Amino acid sequence: MEAETEEELLESVVEGCRMPVRMSGTDEWPLAEVISMKDNKMRFYVHYIDYNKRLDEWVPRDRLNLTKVLPPVKKDAKKGGRPPSPDSAARRAQSGRKRKTLHGAAADSQQAKASRQAKVTGSTSMMVTDSASAAPDGEDSIRDIPIEVEEPAAATTEAPPPPPQPQQSLRKGGSMVQHTGHDDIVTRIKNVETIELGQYRIQPWYFSPYPQEWCNLPCIYLCEFCLKFCKCRTSLVRHREKCTLFYPPGNEIYRKDDISFFECDGRKCRQYAQNLCLLAKLFLDHKTLYYDTDPFLFYVMTKNDEKGCHLVGYFSKEKESSEDYNVACILTLPPYQRKGYGKLLIEFSYELSRVEGKTGTPEKPLSDLGLLSYRSYWSGAILEILVGLLKESSNPTNPPLICINEICELTSIRKDDVISTLQHHNLIHYYKGQYVLSLTKEIVETHQKSMAKRLVRIDNKCVHWMPRDWSKRGKW
Predict the structure, then answer these.
(1) pTM to 2 decimal places
(2) Burial status of residue 49 (CB atoms within 10 A of its CB: 0-12, 13-18, 19 or more)
(3) What residue ranges in 155-257 does DSSP mark as E strands?
(4) What sign has the CA pseudo-torsion 171, 172, 175, 177?
(5) Which of 236, 261, 373, 247 is nearest to 305 (CA)?
(6) What are the catalytic residues?
(7) Among 112-126, 220-234, 267-281, 411-425, where is mean pLDDT lowest?
(8) Strand pairing class (43-48; 31-38)
(9) CA distance 167 to 129
(10) Residue 197 contacts residue 222 (beta carbons within 8 Å)
């Protein structure tokens, strides 16, 4: 009887339905969507709702809660899967009529706000002060960095103007949360079980368009120097006997201790660049794989020993970027994550921008882990300058001055990213007619602890690189 009941419940399981599924390695039963089925409904590929796609997996039947199966969500329904009721539709129509009647008043309000903002003229600069003496009793010492904003022509008691806004707000969210749209059913399923790269066996996170005959194998073996993929270890050993590479096929533009950076031209090293993109797509979901690598430069970071230069991570950038992006795609391989190499890649990309004499920004949108890494790097780079100015200031009543543009020049970080980082940490405040950056004791201590953990930094004296003008097609 129990078997018959289970078979009846399995009949309601179709692609797109949702039910609680026990997640691997935990006792949690989050809601999951069935993406695909195989082996006569013995194995199911599920996506855990509100979790990153890297956690998607094949699960057996006994990990499904078949008593709480929800039907598939209709594509034309709302995000929650429930169509609107007639009452709620009527209420929205009524509120829409009210908004129309208030449209004129709202327009006048916006014009008045714009006129108040128009009174502010001048340039943006910052002044570093120590306002501990002005802090109320019982509060911690607060170090303020007033930003000298555009001064009004006459004194006014109106509300302070809003701080400068970045042109594009960055996506926020936890490292395990991602909101995705409707993807192709083929690309939503991981097609590679494991890869072997050097001494590491790695489980991929996402789909990558490797040839189908390789995807059916239990493991794909990669040459860690040229990234050629083989079907078995014996084939890899034979390849290594003939492969002459022990480092990426490009120019070494940086070396310090056991860390090197190689610049690889996507046109001259086309096969290597394509293999690198295939490998990177296994761990990047937000980027589209292009086989046309000619317009890109690839900067590959390696960790060196007596056996060769082993791939740690890389970032790519366009030879000609209309938006002045200094990074198109960036990746640290999973075995080297959480060891500081991600920030080292980011720091090197901004070091190249500094050599070019301009500010840069990564191509948007950033992945969840990429956004966290960039937020952390931007915060550290900006706070390093501000804390240094506070230490140099011996007279708290006469603080040093610095403007946002100077921060951009010193860090090579684009102005939008500087402003968004300051706003993200809630450092900008309006005080006595000007904007100030409030650095609390906790922020300074947290920054110092974070910088103490960064044992590996980029030494600009070890960079041997000159920018090129790629606008001339002859240099391609």
Answers:
(1) 0.77
(2) exposed
(3) 195-197, 200-202, 220-222, 229-230, 251-256
(4) negative
(5) 247
(6) 363
(7) 112-126
(8) antiparallel
(9) 29
(10) yes
